[in-house]
Amino acid sequence: MERLIDPKATIAVIQKHQFQFQKRFGQNFLVDAHVLEKIIQAAGVTKEDFVLEIGPGIGTMTQALADAARQVAAVEIDKNLIPILRETLAGWDNVEILEGDILKMDVKALADRYNGGQPIKVVANLPYYITTPILMGLFESGVPLDRVTVMVQKEVADRMKAGPGTKDYGALSLAVQYYAEPYLAANVPPNCFMPRPSVGSAVICLTAHREKPVQVADEGLLFRVIRASFGQRRKTLANSLHNAPDLPYTKEQVQQELERLGLPAGIRGEALTLQQFAQLANGLYGLAGGGPGPSAGTGEEPADGRKERR
Ligand code: SAM
């Protein structure tokens, strides 16, 4: 079976099937063998592994994953790609092509079916318009995860691995780092894709923590506190939390908790570590009104208005 990882082979498949790229599905197909190799290596896939691929496109990465893994399930939303995938993956009997929207799929059931409920590997060149909901959905829904290796917009990769006090640090950094250890495996320029995206890309590896790095009484409260802290970046933490519609605390209560933690009353959210956010959330939990609410998520849109494109 012909390997697709070169621009010529990709063009041939596209022309043969008269495939039209759908911008709304974030379709930018990988056409660089070196980058593909880096992804497979970073993902650490072995013949023991079940791999979930999100958005296989015409099956370029799927072929390489099928060579490396025991079993692959590839979820593709674009029904026009399904007959193409059947053809390009015909040479592999360890690939299941599933038509559907990953955001509506029961990934936990897939992990049960294909991997006996054991931690799975996820590998994807993600559609950038839904990077955050896909990743947060995976982490929050309790899917057993080993490692998630994904191509994302460079700017988003930077935010995922950013630490306190930097411009990229925010709700996404904290949410990702609560669940996983991020590692930037490669920077990828636009000319590695067809068509070329308007933004730079990066491959990021998120290795799931076996044990959460912090213990909190209420995860939902932790993430409401984090979201509120970065919702109004230039305000002090005490003002931001006091103004948040989904938090019941007075400015004085927040300041008291900050003082208890040895932090200045006028501190901003961007200065706090995940550990400090957890301590703050646990302190607030002890006060009246800190009941349960919606969990994690990052509010998706970064507070400073930067958008995820592609
Ligand atoms: N993996 C291929 C590659 O590397 O060449 C294609 C990557 S392309 C950036 C993203 C793929 O995700 C496209 O095939 C697109 O149709 C698919 N996609 C977009 N939204 C999706 C969704 N909600 N669920 C599943 N697949 C989706």
Structure description:
The protein is an alpha/beta fold. Helix content is 37%, strand content 17%. Helix 6 links the parallel strand 5 and strand 6. The two termini are 30 Å apart. The structure holds S-adenosylmethionine. S-adenosylmethionine (SAM) binds next to strand 1, helix 3 and strand 3.
Topology diagram in text:
Elements: H1 7-16, E1 29-30, H2 33-43, E2 50-54, H3 60-68, E3 71-76, H4 82-88, E4 95-99, H5 107-115, E5 120-125, H6 131-140, E6 145-153, H7 154-161, H8 171-179, E7 180-188, E8 193-194, E9 201-208, H9 219-231, H10 237-243, H11 251-260, H12 274-285
Parallel strand pairs: 2-3, 2-5, 3-4, 5-6
Antiparallel strand pairs: 1-8, 6-9, 7-9
Helix pairs in contact: 6-8, 9-10, 9-12, 10-11
Bound molecules: S-adenosylmethionine (SAM).
The site of S-adenosylmethionine (SAM) has 23 residues, from strand 1, helix 3 and strand 3.
